[in-house]
Amino acid sequence: MVNNTNKNIDESSGKMDDPTQNMGEPVQTVDKSAANQERDESGRGMTEPEPNQIKAASESNQDMDEDEDIDIGFHFEDTSSIEVPKLLIDQVLGQEHAVEVVKKAASQRRHIMMIGTPGTGKSLLAKAMAELLPKEELKDILVYPNLEDLNNPKIREVPAGKGREIVMAHKMEARKKVQARNMLMMLFVVGIVIYSYFVAQLLWGIIAGIMILMLTRQFLPKEEMMIPKLAVSNYDKEHAPYIDATGAHAGALLGDVRHDPFQSGGLETPAHDRVEAGDIHKAHKGVLFIDEINTLKLESQQSLLTALQEKEYPITGQSERSSGALVKTEPVPCDFIMVSAGNLDAVQKMHPALRSRIKGYGYEVYMRDSMEDTPENRKKLVRFVAQEVVRDGHIPHFDEGAVKEVIREARRRAGRKGHLTLKLRDLGGLVRVAGDIARSEGAPLTTAEHVLAAKRIARSIEQQLADSYLEQRKDYESFLREGSAVGRVNGLAVMGGDSGIVLPIVSEVTPAISGAEGRIIATGKLKTIAKEAVQNVSAVIKNMTGTDITRHDVHIQFVGTYEGVEGDSASVSIATAVISAIEKIPVDQTVAMTGSLSVRGDVLPVGGVTYKIEAAAQAGLKKVIIPKANEADVLIEKAYRKKIQIIPVSSIAEVMEHSLVGPKKNSIIEKLRCITKLSFDIPEVTPASVQAKNLLGCRN
């Protein structure tokens, strides 16, 4: 899906991961002077840049040079000298609030729900919580046959490790009884055979012996049927159990009873031996982790709620057609701590009673997706690289240069100036790919060159698709890269949150079909937010152009958006295309743009600006217009710095100034500037209590 998202700075940071191309460094490449040009109708000629614009550009270049090196705060040869904490809770990065909550929840046995972007450490925190629980409380669970009702097996709870001893003892006793019985039967059969020999009936004696052996095997009670089954074993475990039940079906989560095709003739399996413990029972006295909990069926969520409340849940067959449907055990202990996780939509789609149970008897935590870019946090990322190397166990350690390249990528993936990403699963993937490259080359250490190579290899599907998309657009000239055109704009969008594409937008004004009023018609499989954005833009156009469009239909086409468009970051592009079509003023086709638009003409921040800028540069465009509020979020790759000029704007008038060409643009720009500079005086409101004091002549 083509995604034109308009999000605030914190939200957009969770949408921008891009391990493509050459290694990028954080840089604010804003060049206002080069973009402040005015063209005549042929598109040639320019005015001199203003002094303050030249100053802004020089300051930007200076910032870029200062950001070239990364200050970690200490020197090291490679990550083998970095100490990795033994406890998982000490290995969690950037989630101090979540760590504190986990420690409290572990000591008080509270449930937790973690909501946040994937890859921010939710499962690691759940594993860390299991390490904090006391090992002394662990239990084994045994299933015994019930001689009074074979379909209702009994349950026994014993200390950890004791269940294994009990089962072994029962097996030894059963083996002794079987051996003694077999010995007696063999003596009896041998006696019959000897007797038949002396009475000259040897053949009948052998037949009688075989029949006796078969009958005794068939009808005598089997000692193995009395051996209990060890359903849950915590023998020789160092920590409390951690069970990941993500995506588990009802039988795996709640327990099940195996189907027995041989239910008679002495071949049937005892009911208690067919009982299989579920994840809720295996997590007894430990942690049950369920990611994307909203994907569980409502019936499973209701059963999970019962298990949380009662701390025990009987095991029965989950299939009505199976012979296990007749079997139901006594309540099985399942006193676990549940750690549920998911994205924001998980909260809406969870069973309300289940969420109420977690909220009333536990904690809700929102996971951060970025942290401030400080020397202390950079040290944490150094430790993170060392942790990933040790955890993998098959890749060489990273030298200091390689670690700095990883930190640069963490800056870039954060999508915010002065922040580092906390989506460490994806960043860990980059570390492992770089280590694999180093190992394939036989290098003793992973270097910066290996990290750069890993970025080129470890591209997401969306990034590969975006590259193919751009190449196809170039072949078929779906967007223009030079000259000018009326009503045509090169918009920008993101795919998958970490890949930018050029989104051509075309507008045309025609006589209204309806005699009552003109319409604004947008095509391109627009979704809800995109449609609302078009409506907002229509209000802006009516107020700002001064043109009576009631007798015209305005057509807006998103070219090539076969999978739909969502978001309102194309608002600026739509407004530019429509105004160009109405006023018949050409748009510079070397310019691409992105930004949301308020009804007063203010350009608002959007998400994914870094990837949109890189897409424009890769497409061969020369300039890109972005919201002024996103200026600090620009962290483009080094390879694109000299290919594209970045123009931050704050109003629609500035957009027109940098995108329209020809002398006719000046009038519309002045009109837009007058409208966007309108201000309203807000009267000062005096509190009623102060007014009363003034009237009464009171003083403080």
TrEMBL record:
GO terms, molecular function: ATP binding; ATP-dependent peptidase activity; serine-type endopeptidase activity
Any one cellular-component term (Gene Ontology): plasma membrane
Chain segments annotated as transmembrane: 180-197
Compartments where located: Cell membrane
Matching InterPro entries: AAA+_ATPase, Lon_arc, Lon_proteolytic, Lon_Prtase, LonB_AAA-LID, Mg_chelatse_chII-like_cat_dom, P-loop_NTPase, Ribosomal_Su5_D2-typ_SF
EC number: 3.4.21.-
Region described as Disordered: spans on this chain: 1-65
Lineage: superkingdom: Archaea
Name of the protein in question: Archaeal Lon protease
Phylogenetic placement of the source organism: Archaea, Methanobacteriati, Methanobacteriota, Stenosarchaea group, Methanomicrobia
